[in-house]
Amino acid sequence: MQKLIGRMGYVLLLLMLTVNIMAQDVNFTIQVTGFQKASGQIRIAVYNKENGFLTPERVYKRIVLEVNQSILKHTVRLPQGNYAIVLYQDNNSNGICDTNFLGIPIERYGFSNNIRPILSAPSFNSTMIKVKKDLEIEIALLK
After folding, report:
1. 117 in Cβ contact with 71 (< 8 Å)
2. Which long-range contacts (CB under 8 A, 24 or more apart) does 64-68 make?
3. pTM check: above 0.90
4. What is the tens place of the pLDDT at every residue in 90-114?
């Protein structure tokens, strides 16, 4: 009987630890607007570190969604933390953000905090969002 109570206590402790760990995840919803047309894919890159920001190998989470409406909304579960979102509409579904000869995107793109780059790509800190609880953001695509 004491062994059974001991095992139940152990199982209860593991359950409480699991619930505590899971409680740190939040719903993070990204709403994307500004599509030129409802076609192709939206490719979303979620970064969680300044080191390696905008480096494809350093993406924390990748999301690819079909574009079939003028406003797209997607929710993902993330641990609480700091994140920067980079996305683009891949009109020809080739998996890359097509650019002109100067390296400027010719497909629509966007960043968290709706940062509009002027002469260079934005920094992690300028696009960073602190996610402490369920959160919904909107990113308007730039041309």
Report:
1. no
2. 65/41, 66/41, 67/35, 67/38, 67/39, 67/40, 67/41, 67/42, 68/38, 68/39
3. no
4. 999 999 999 999 988 999 999 999 9
Q: Are 29 and 73 in contact (CB under 8 A)?
A: yes
3-state secondary structure (DSSP) of residue 88:
strand
Helix intervals (H) in the chain? 2-22, 124-127
**Burial of 137: CB neighbours in 10 Å, binned 0-12, 13-18, 19+:** middle
Which position has the token pair 């920094």? 123
Domains parsed from the chain with CATH numbers: 25-140 (2.60.40)
Output the six-digit token pair for 29: 């919803």
- Write out pLDDT tens, residues 26-69: 999 999 999 988 999 999 999 999 999 999 999 999 999 999 99
Both tokens of 97, joined, read: 């953000």
